[in-house]
Amino acid sequence: MTQPPGFGAMLAWLLDHRGLDAEALADRAGSTADEIRGVVAGEPPGEGLLRRLAPALGLRALDLFILAGPDVPEDLAPVDATAARGVRDAVLDALRLPAAGRQELLRFIRSLPQQERSSAFAPKRLTDPAGGPGARLVRMLQYRNLDWSGMAYILAFVTPTYLSTVTYGSIGAGHVELTPRLVTDFAALLGMDARDLAGLTGVELPEVPPAPAPEAVDAAALLWEARRLSAAQARQVSELARSMRGDSRDGHRSDPSGR
User: What are the pLDDT digits (tens) for 74-131?
Assistant: First the structure.
């Protein structure tokens, strides 16, 4: 199995990949070169540093926390854990619209007021004790309020990856090896550059991957914004999407293998 690089090795790779040295990154992140070198050498980064490093490296703070290993702060987690199925359905309904309709749904999601968090977000526990690369990728999607079923449906819709629901649990548990295809397609749904994700997970891409499909780009944006939706708001998004295409039927409740 692919061995997960430590966060120090990931940061060293990012520095090289971005063409930065410790001084340049420290200047961007409001840190010191010694602090950056310490993390590269293996010192665990604090919450404040991770938050500052993320924009300096062109990454989201949520994903950087998951890569680094500490608990994700509550303010970066989805607002409503019970919205997972609604988020899945809302994104699938949006993806059945033309590009202009998807953008209209995205604007609508952004316009919705964020409701108060009713409970702490606690994604399904992963069983990979080493926190391997597969566990990290699955965790990133969990923090976009996708459960294994949501991963199976949406990845099958917008990428060539077509796996059963339980396979995503196996990826998260470290029982399924990450392939270049999986990394490329996870990256598309995460809204990340596939070459970045490959380097951060230790998976070598045999060639430069093509740009993700427009539907995958839109799905990534919809998922990111939908983290702040309640279950009721997610249903509202689905209803609007179905009304926009003149279809009130619930067309995505069967298993992906029957698509």
Answer: 999 999 999 999 999 999 999 999 999 999 999 999 999 998 988 889 888 776 655 6
Q: How far apart are CA 179 and CA 106, in angstroms?
A: 31
Can you tell me the distance from the alpha carbon of 37 to that of 21, in angstroms, rounded to the nearest whole number? 9
Burial 30-69 (b: 16+ CB within 10 A, else e): ebeeebbbbbbeeeebeeebbbbbbebbebbbbbbbbbbe
Half-sphere exposure in the Cβ direction for 234 (13 Å, CA): 27
Q: Give all domains of the chain, ordered by start, each with its CATH number.
A: 7-72 (1.10.260.40), 81-258 (no CATH)
First to last CA, the chain: 31
> Reduced to 3 DSSP states, what percent helix, strand and coil does the chain have, rounded to the nearest 5?
60, 0, 40
41, 35 contact by CB (below 8 A): no
CA dihedral (239, 240, 243, 245) positive or negative: negative
Contact at 8 Å (CB) between 152 and 145?
no
Report how far apart, in Å, the C-alpha atoms of 74 and of each of 84, 122, 141, 232, 241 are: 17, 10, 16, 21, 29
Other CB atoms within a 10 A radius of the CB of residue 204 amount to 10
Q: Inter-axis angle of helices 148-158 and 214-226, to 10 degrees?
A: 150
pTM for this entry: 0.91
pLDDT, mean of residues 48-69: 96
Three-state SS string across 80-126, please?
A: CHHHHHHHHHHHHHHHCCCHHHHHHHHHHHHHCCCCCCCCCCCCCCC
* Cβ burial, residue 173 (10 Å; 0-12/13-18/19+): middle
